[in-house]
Design a protein that fits this description.
Layout (H helix, E strand, L loop, with lengths): L3 E5 L10 H11 L2 E8 L9 H11 L5 E7 L8 H4 L6 E3 L2 E2 L2 E2 L10 H19 L3 E2 L13 H4 L2 H14 L2 E5 L7 H10 L3 E4 L12 H10 L15
Parallel strand pairs: 1-2, 2-3, 3-4, 4-7, 7-8, 8-9
Antiparallel strand pairs: 5-6
Helix pairs in contact: 4-6, 6-7
Length: 235
């Protein structure tokens, strides 16, 4: 299997690396790589056509798949025309309304309510943006992450799989967050869902680090034809 890390970040959003440095890391490991900087509201994200044109220009000529991670909990101001110039799009849930998943002090509703809101958000934005990959499926607000094994139950897995099939998006096997669980991967695999591999790397120590992703591919017996095909490599 040709290993592709389709989820990395650079200095164009909240990463520490230049696109060239990400490419260098991937080449040293013998991987293909996609750069998918954050797109949405917030000071660290790309959220205008001018910013996105500059981003795409920086990726031209590099041996890299062009992508963007759409922040599904925010409004995306970049035009569909420019987003369409990407090789694929990633959708990521980092917030719901005013609930920031990275705010450790946030007041939380019941976990079941959060899951329902997450699923609803994924479906609504899948209809609107038609992203091809769902990033880190099951990423919870920081307070709830220690209980993820209990919260992300079989009902969650089944609903997630239904959405992946309905809107034809791949589930990312995220090495940074070790998501989804092996049990969810098994459920998705049996149902015919595709997968992608992502480090969600932001720096030298995390870009193209696919330990969990590759472990799950081997453990679950995921064949190459069940891995998302990003197309021909540019550059």
């Amino acid at each position: 299997m040709i290993i592709k890390d389709l989820h990395t970040h650079t200095m164009f959003s909240d990463g520490k690396l230049t696109p060239e440095e990400v490419c260098s890391i991937a080449k040293a490991k013998g991987y293909l790589v996609g750069i998918s900087d954050h797109c949405g509201e917030g000071s660290f994200q790309i959220n205008s056509d001018d910013q996105f044109r500059h981003y795409l220009q920086a990726l031209e000529g590099l041996a890299v798949f062009k992508s963007a991670e759409l922040d599904l909990g925010t409004q995306i101001a970049v035009s569909p025309h420019l987003l369409g110039k990407c090789d694929y799009l990633i959708g990521g849930v980092h917030s719901i309304s005013d609930l920031n998943f990275f705010d450790s002090q946030a007041r939380l509703p019941a976990s079941r309510a959060i899951l329902e809101q997450m699923l609803g958000l994924i479906e609504t934005k899948a209809q609107h943006h038609r992203f091809q990959i769902l990033a880190h499926p099951g990423l919870l607000p920081s307070k709830l992450r220690p209980e993820a094994g209990k919260i992300l139950d079989n009902k969650w897995s089944q609903r997630l799989v239904e959405l992946a099939l309905k809107y034809d998006f791949a589930l990312e096997i995220s090495s940074r967050w070790e998501l989804p669980s092996y049990e969810t991967i098994q459920t998705a695999l049996k149902a015919g869902v595709r997968f992608s591999l992502g480090s969600d790397g932001h720096g030298w120590d995390t870009a193209c680090r696919l330990d969990y992703s590759l472990e799950m591919v081997e453990k679950a017996g995921i064949r190459p034809d069940r891995i998302f095909d990003a197309g021909m490599l540019s550059g």
